[in-house]
Write a structure and sequence with these properties.
Number of domains of chain C: 3
Shape of chain C: globular
Oligomer: heterotrimer
Radius of gyration of chain B: 17 Å
Radius of gyration of chain C: 20 Å
Structural class of chain C: mainly alpha
Largest sheet of chain C: none
Structural class of chain B: mainly alpha
Largest interface: B-C, 69 and 84 residues
CATH superfamily of the largest domain in chain C: NADH-ubiquinone/plastoquinone oxidoreductase chain 6, subunit NuoJ
Helix content of chain B: over 70%
CATH class of the largest domain in chain C: Mainly Alpha
Order of helices and strands of chain C: HHHHHHH
Number of strands of chain B: 0
Strand content of chain B: under 5%
Shape of chain B: elongated
Number of helices of chain C: 7
Chains: A mainly alpha (about 650), B mainly alpha (about 100), C mainly alpha (about 170)
Number of strands of chain C: 0
Strand content of chain C: under 5%
Order of helices and strands of chain B: HHHH
CATH architecture of the largest domain in chain C: Up-down Bundle
């Protein structure tokens, strides 16, 4: 099978970025947007074609029954030693093919949507240039042939995220948010880099595909001992930074300062799942050499999922609610990956369908959830963008009763909410159910906790839904004060919503009926297997979700929200803590400002300023003073020269006498 | 018979009186006069050494003669320069020439 | 003995005038004292029986150079120079005197320690005749000075031209 065309997938967005970045300001908005969108459309077609070829035309290898790992090209860029080289390449595996579809689809939807959303904005061309840069980086990340290439694109993704969060750079909050996002993720990436270096030092390669390792490298891996869990966990910290795991999640809510389509693309659907993708890519190594580290990933992710869900229940800014919901859902995905266990007999990923269905189920569930979440969360964010576009505010108090004014947004939002809540026949149900099954396989406690968080998810999402679309309309109550009428978004904005919700619906219906089997394409060991709905788990979670929805309906559907207000009054401290995100930002501020800045940075700065700079300044001062002191000799005063001459002559004479 | 060291001490005293004048006076002409004193002390040495140490020869004699001629020429040129400086700076103090630096 | 008395008288005149010359605050007086110094030096030449040299000293220095100075003073500024009261800075005077004294002591010490004063010979009490001077000045043999003489003449010419060029009004 010929995959010669795939280099275009990376090249086209890169060229678009260069073109729009250099010449964009000379173009009109329409031309620049069309160039960006067309290029992404072509990339999307190519991605679909590549995935189609990979999954359906080429299909499974007849001998092994697995999807082969295809390396389309692999160019050596840097050569550190004979064994250790840094390559840039394009590799297709089942998960990268899936990611290609997710990224290109959401990116294309966002490109189209932005036509309407960003209409008339200053820097429209710049926006599209950055979107292209981001798409290129993200695609490069998922097709990386080695971990160092992944790291390179990882950082590029971070940069484009930084640029897009700070898109409204005249606004102070946007600048602060972009800096925060960059610094926090960069801080986490430092651990990622250290992990990569440790890994490559011990194994002698940047390659992370066990099937492509030489025997010597396998031996090195086997002998690494405790080094490998450490390296892998350090890499996971990098992933936790990007995927906003507690306590590195603090940048994601603030990142909502960026344009809403950007939030949909980067901070909900694609970039933030880079950490999940990283863990999934390293999954065989994790399972074989660091199962404990993998479980720690699960614990951290579970806590994050709970924490974010709790915070999401009390936020008033609708984008913040969605941001915390994203964090929570990413927690679900990582929990799913983390609860996978090695095969008891081989201690690794076993190549049997039983393994894929039992111990390795979480892998498939996590990837499945990544896929479905990308679609419905992008839809939710884009819907939130329509709402913000209509009411010109992020705050829930300016909303309410919008279902009459924005029917399309309302219906697509509702579909996505049902999906994320895990109602059968919506895509979230299929993936979340598998995650819960995997959790119950791991331990009933973990399963129960995750079921509870799923119920919380349903509650806060429907709280959001009711607050926006039902209840007292701000427009109707404030008509007299000049509040203007909300209106349905233009076609460019509603069409992506419809497409995304249709995908959600289709995946949900076919997935629930087991017509579409995600496990056919992606599984922990690559072996195809058919899922079967565990009706006990599914029933419990569905009931819990319906309870959550019912509670939300009871509390928030009406014109007034007496129960919610009463609860907030009754537990003011709890409500306030949740609203303030349990003071995590304050904790970080305390740690950075009071401890790191004061105890580490200040002395270091003092050392830098007084010792390092001081030495330099002293040299400069000494030279200056020496010059000043002998400057008087060059006075131009003849008599003074005569004195010096005389003194010198006499000194010489005296010297001669003494000698 | 006058011992040669008398001449020498005399000329040394004259020389350093000239040096003292050169480094203390600020007036260009006064400095030039000091230079004349220095030149004269050297001339005395030439003449006295020739006469008292090497009486058969004439080098000191002629050097003194040429020195007188050179110093006359030097004085003429120096005075011309001083007059020029005075014209340009309206002052004949050495300090005024320092203005050239700026 | 008479020589010694003459020498002492001349030395007192020379040193006294020289001191007055550098210490006086009026420029005109300095020029006048310079004249006395030059005359004293001419007296020394006579004492050494270099009568030609003494005559040259008087005619060139006392007659020419001093005149130049006086003209220059008159030309440069009647107002500033004739009645000029030059302010000497005390510290500078002290410093100059100090360094001069140190130098003087050094030089005198060097000289007195030297051996060549013992080489002094009895001065033949006779004048250098004009004939010898003329022949030596114009001869081109060894120890004869026609070349420096010509050089001096060219040099003087150059100085005349230079002086005219420099002091010429633009």
């Amino acid at each position: 099978m010929d995959y010669g065309f795939v280099f275009l997938i990376l090249l086209l967005p890169a060229l678009t970025f260069i073109l729009l970045g250099l010449a964009g300001m000379k173009m009109s908005h329409k031309v620049a947007g069309l160039i960006g969108t067309c290029s992404i459309a072509v990339v999307t077609v190519l991605c679909y074609y590549a995935a189609f070829e990979y999954f359906l035309v080429q299909g499974r290898d007849a001998a092994t029954g697995l999807y082969p790992t295809v390396t389309a090209f692999d160019i050596t860029w840097l050569r550190f030693s004979e064994l250790l080289t840094f390559n840039i390449g394009f590799r297709i595996t089942p998960i990268s093919a899936m990611m290609l579809i997710v990224i290109s689809t959401v990116s294309l939807m966002v490109h189209i949507y932005s036509f309407g959303y960003m209409h008339g904005e200053k820097g429209f061309q710049r926006y599209y240039a950055f979107l292209s840069l981001f798409t290129m980086s993200m695609l490069g990340l998922v097709v990386a042939t080695n971990i160092f290439q992944m790291y390179l694109f990882w950082e590029l993704v971070g940069v484009s995220s930084y640029l897009l969060i700070g898109f409204y750079y005249p606004m102070h909050a946007a600048v602060a948010a972009s800096k925060k996002a960059f610094i926090v993720t960069r801080f986490a990436d430092l651990f990622f880099l250290i992990g990569i270096l440790i890994y490559s030092f011990y194994v002698g390669t940047f390659n992370y595909d066990l099937s492509q390792m030489s025997p010597a490298q396998m031996t090195a891996l086997n002998q690494a001992g405790w080094i490998m869990p450490t390296a892998l966990f350090l890499m996971f910290i990098g992933g936790a930074g990007k995927s906003a795991m507690f306590p590195l999640h603090i940048w994601l809510p603030d990142a909502m300062e960026g344009p809403t389509p950007v939030s949909a693309l980067i901070h909900a659907a694609t970039m933030v799942v880079a950490g999940v993708y990283l863990v999934a890519s390293l999954f065989p190594i994790f399972v074989k050499f660091a199962p404990e580290a993998l479980h720690w990933v699960a614990y951290i992710a579970a806590f994050t999922a709970f924490y974010a869900a709790a915070v999401a229940c009390c936020q008033s800014d609708i984008k913040r609610v969605l941001a915390f919901s994203t964090i929570s859902q990413i927690g679900f995905m990582l929990v799913a990956l983390g609860v996978c266990m090695p095969d008891p007999e081989t201690g690794a990923v076993a190549m049997t369908a039983e393994y894929a269905d039992a111990n390795g189920l979480g892998y498939m569930a996590g990837m499945y959830h990544l896929f479905t979440h990308a679609m419905f969360k992008a839809c939710l964010f884009l819907g939130a963008g329509c709402i913000i576009h209509a009411v010109h505010s992020n705050e829930k108090m300016y909303m309410g009763g919008l279902r009459k004014y924005m029917p399309v947004t309302h219906w697509t939002f509702l579909i996505s909410c049902l999906a994320i809540a895990g109602i059968p026949f919506f895509s979230g149900f299929c993936s979340k159910d598998e995650i819960l099954v995997a959790c119950y396989n791991f331990s009933p406690v973990m399963g129960a906790i995750m079921s509870g968080i799923a119920a919380m998810t349903a509650f806060y999402m429907f709280r959001l839904y009711y607050v926006i679309f039902w209840g007292k309309s701000y427009y109707e109550t404030h008509k007299a004060e000049g509040a203007h009428q909300p209106h349905e978004a233009p076609l460019t904005m509603t069409v992506p919503l419809i497409i995304l919700s249709v995908i959600t619906m289709l995946v949900g219906i076919f997935g629930t009926l087991h017509v579409f089997e995600f496990g056919e394409f992606v599984s922990a060991n690559g072996v195809a297997f058919g899922t079967h709905t565990n009706w006990f788990v599914a029933g419990v979670s569905t009931v819990l979700a319906i309870c959550g929805i019912g509670l939300a309906t009871y509390m928030y559907k009406g014109e007034e929200t007496p129960v919610a207000d009463m609860l907030a009054r009754k537990f003011p401290k709890l409500h306030r803590a949740a609203y303030k995100r349990f003071y995590m930002d304050e904790v970080w501020m305390f740690v950075t400002h009071k401890i790191i800045f004061k105890c580490v940075s200040t002395p270091l700065a003092w050392f830098d300023r007084h010792v390092v700079d001081g030495a330099m300044n002293f040299m400069a001062w000494g030279t200056n003073e020496a010059g000043e002191s002998i400057r008087g000799w060059q006075s131009g005063d003849v008599r003074q020269y005569a004195v010096w001459f005389l003194t010198g002559a006499i000194a010489l004479v005296l010297l001669c006498i003494c000698l | 018979m006058i011992p040669v060291e008398y001449f020498f001490v005399l000329s040394a005293l004259l020389f350093f009186i000239g040096v003292f004048g050169f480094i203390t006076r600020r007036n260009l002409i006064a400095m030039l006069i000091s230079v004349e004193l220095i030149l004269n002390s050297v001339d005395i040495n030439f003449a006295a050494f020739n006469r008292l140490l090497f009486p058969g020869q004439m080098e000191g004699f002629f050097f003194t003669l040429f020195s007188i001629g050179v110093s006359a020429a030097e004085t003429a040129v120096a005075v011309a320069i001083i007059i020029n400086v005075y014209r340009n700076f309206n002052s004949d103090q050495v300090n005024c020439i320092e203005n050239m630096k700026n | 003995m008479a020589n010694m008395v003459m020498f002492i008288i001349l030395a007192v005149v020379i040193l006294g005038s020289a001191l007055m010359c550098v210490m006086t605050k009026r420029i005109m007086r300095a020029a006048t004292f310079l004249l006395f110094v030059l005359l004293g030096v001419a007296g020394l030449y006579f004492l050494l029986d270099y009568t030609f040299l003494g005559a040259a000293q008087i005619s060139v220095y006392a007659g020419g150079v001093t005149m130049i100075y006086i003209f220059a003073i008159q030309l440069v500024s009647k107002r500033t120079l004739q009645g000029l009261v030059e302010r000497l800075k005390g510290s500078r005077v002290v410093f100059g005197a100090l360094i001069t004294l140190i130098s003087l002591v050094t030089v005198v010490a060097v000289f007195l320690k030297n051996k060549f004063i013992d080489m002094a010979v009895q001065m033949p009490d006779e004048e250098v005749s004009m004939n010898v001077i003329g022949n030596t000045l114009m001869g081109s043999e060894k120890y004869q000075y026609v070349l420096p003489f010509e050089f001096i003449s060219v040099f003087l010419l150059a100085c005349i031209i230079g002086g005219i060029v420099i002091s010429r009004k633009e």
